[in-house]
């Protein structure tokens, strides 16, 4: 898994690639902490490079969404691959999170 963060147009964008599974969930959560703590920027996750997401990855996304909501922001997922989008939709994440699938 690879994680990188950039600031773009008033948003903190975290680009993630690889597998978001139990083995990488802790590192993923730790990488999101500074982004979620930054009150001056909207948190955005670019998942274009994610090939797989497990329940461990979903748990981190749920926690991140709750943290963003607690500070009055909404976590947005962008460039979500079709396979990952299917998991998010089946898990009900589309009901409380802004998710934009890949074109």
Fill in the keyword field for this structure.
103 residues, 3 helices, 5 strands, five-stranded mixed beta sheet, single chain, Transcription Regulator spoIIAA, alpha/beta, 37% strand
Task: Give an overview of the whole structure.
With 103 residues, this protein is α/β, with parallel strands linked by helices. The protein has three helices and five strands. It has one domain: Transcription Regulator spoIIAA. The protein has a five-stranded mixed sheet, with helices on one face. The longest helix has 16 residues, at 55-70. The two termini are 23 Å apart.
What is this entry, summarized?
The chain is an alpha/beta fold and 103 residues long. Helices cover 37% and strands 37% of the residues.
The biggest sheet amounts to: 5 strands, mixed
β-strand number: 5
Radius of gyration using CA atoms only: 12 Å
Poorly predicted ranges (pLDDT <50, ≥5 residues)?
Answer: none
Structural class: alpha/beta
Helix content: 25-40%
Order of helices and strands: EEHEHEHE
CATH domain class:
Alpha Beta
* Strand line-up across the major sheet: 1-2-3-4-5
What is the mean predicted local confidence, pLDDT? Answer: 90
What sort of overall outline do the alpha carbons produce when their principal axes are compared?
Answer: globular
CATH topology: Transcription Regulator spoIIAA
* CATH superfamily membership: STAS domain
| Number of structurally distinct domains | 1
Give the second-level CATH assignment, the architecture. Answer: 2-Layer Sandwich
